[in-house]
Amino acid sequence: MKNHNKLSRRDFIKTVSIIPPSLSIGMIMKQTQNIKEKARIGVVGVGNRGHFLVDLLTQCSDVEVLAIADIKKEHAERTKLLCEQRQKFSPEIYTNGETDFENLVKRDDIDCVLCATSWEWHTPVAISSMKAGKIAALEVPAAITLKECWKLIETSEKQKQPCFMLENVCYFKEPLTILRMIREGCFGEVVHAEGGYQHDCRFLLADEKGQLNWRGKGIIDRIGNTYPTHPIGPISQWLNINRGDRFTSLYSVSTPPFGIHEYFVKKYGPEHELSRMKVKHGDINTTLLQTFLGKTVTLYHDTSLPRPYDSIFRVQGTKGIYFGSLQKIYLEDVSPQKDAWEDFEPYTKKYAHPIWSAYESAGGSTAGHGLGDFITVRELVRAIRTGQTSLPDVYDSATWSAIIELSEQSASAGGKKVDFPDFTNGRWKTNQPIPIIQLPQQWLSSC
Ligand SMILES: NC(=O)c1ccc[n+]([C@@H]2O[C@H](COP(=O)([O-])OP(=O)(O)OC[C@H]3O[C@@H](n4cnc5c(N)ncnc54)[C@H](O)[C@@H]3O)[C@@H](O)[C@H]2O)c1
Questions:
Q1: Which of 159, 329, 415, 428 has the fewest C-beta atoms under 10 angstroms from its C-beta?
Q2: 122 Cα to the center of ligand 1, angstroms
Q3: What is the pLDDT of residues 25-43, one digit of tens each?
Q4: Ligand 1: which of 118, 232, 380 to mutate, judged by most atoms within 8 Å of the beta carbon?
Q5: Are 283 and 307 in contact (CB under 8 A)?
Q6: How far apart are CA 302 and CA 196, in angstroms?
Q7: Measured distance CA(391)–CA(370) in Å, rounded
Q8: Rounded Cα gap, residues 144 and 227, in angstroms
Q9: How many CB atoms lie within 10 A of CB 63?
Q10: Which of 43, 117, 229 to mutate to test the pocket of ligand 1 (most atoms within 8 A of CB)?
């Protein structure tokens, strides 16, 4: 096994370890004077998403994918082939069952383990990686239970290793534009926000014969919002959650599973096991969150009915409102007509977030979700190489993922109020809002 990275990795850990583990993103990682030449990564789970992330990562020459683990050998081989085409060497593969990633994380030539497996493995892989002295980078959600959320924080603090969640919607064009506009005061005091994962995902639950896959199994038996991080990520950044404010309570209700049932009957026939199965997961889950400062957020999970994709973002403040479904905005004393919507598009130019503009000018890959996914992986590479990043930290990852179990607790009790844990242990009062980061030119030319 190669060990060409040993010295700089030790330096890196030394740099990170002097940072109090309680600090939040942009702060948990300190700018290191030793910028690493390469980000050396091991990847666990290379199905659709993992393979795609490796594709994006290896487009830049400052990334090396040294190891790949997947329980499906054909998946590991496919991604290995892609890496061989992009790199001068072949990554080692680990395909010996569900816990073979434990061998990958022990390697001493990687700095970071990226996990894009099915949900139940995200936290175990992260914990094992951090214990082995590696940065953990997780696909969404970071965790599926409250216990896992706490475990991620506990391990990150104890091991002094960062754990990031690759929440790519935070880097989509509109959410980034809104973030900058909020910071520049365009909406005044922000009072309410709304967002949803509203995407017809019925076809993702089972195969053609009606055999449930991991996603189907993970959803069917759970009531509540099972995929909250895409909308709550940007909303939390807009509202300075964990940085000046925090979620304090949550109320959640779900409809019955009319749509999933009808879909199974239509697709597999009325006698099929799935059509007769008792499904807990309601078609539409609506969750209401309140913050310490009294602000409110409505969150939707709507994946079991026929519908076009729409993340329904809305932000409303004392000076105006943005409504993503319409792609419209209204700002008092700014919009040309009183009480009339205007197009949002010109605002995406006027208030373009510098990170978006930078990668747009640099010609970043627009595969996937515009530039959003490319910026996400480059922010991971920046974390590994320079110790700086804007990626959601372990406290954000826990806060956003916790909605899965909290909404389940509330919805299964008919919408009962549930207290939202303070994952920052009081540090939300002093943590600074995430900055509107500007990337140095030197960084942009590195890819
Ligand atoms: N951010 C986004 O926009 C986005 C989009 C799609 C998926 N995702 C997330 O990515 C993850 C993967 O989704 P997907 O659609 O690629 O699923 P997938 O089923 O296509 O891929 C999962 C892969 O993980 C492997 N795997 C499972 N358990 C493993 C283990 N213990 N060790 C090693 N490999 C293991 C599987 O064999 C498979 O290759 C999920 O968490 C999902 O929520 C995020």
A1: 415
A2: 9
A3: 333 344 445 899 999 999 9
A4: 118
A5: no
A6: 7
A7: 18
A8: 9
A9: 24
A10: 117
**CA of residue 213 to ligand 1 center, whole Å:** 11
Tokens of 189: 């005091």
Number of H helices, E strands in the chain: 17, 15
Q: What is the pLDDT of residues 323-380, one digit of tens each?
A: 999 999 999 999 999 999 999 999 999 999 999 999 999 889 999 888 999 999 999 9
Q: Which residue ranges have their beta carbon within 6 Å of ligand 1?
A: 44-50, 69-72, 75, 98, 101, 116-119, 121, 139-140, 168
Tokens of 411: 């919805």
DSSP 124-140: HHHHHHHHTT-EEEEPS
AA identity, residue 324: G
Is the bond preceding 141 in cis, omega lying within 30 degrees of 0? yes
Nearest to 28 by CA among 163, 165, 169, 167: 163
Helix (H) or strand (E) holding 359: helix 354-362
Q: Bridge partners of 298?
A: 194, 288
Instruction: Describe the strand order of the beta sheet including 63-69 as a list of residue ranges.
Output: 92-94, 63-69, 39-44, 112-115, 135-138, 163-165
Among 139, 170, 217, which is best to mutate for testing ligand 1, by the most ligand atoms less than 8 A from CB? 139
361 CA from centroid of ligand 1 (Å): 31
Residue whose CA lies nearest to ligand 1 atom number 34 = 70
Structure tokens that stand for 397 in this block: 């990852």
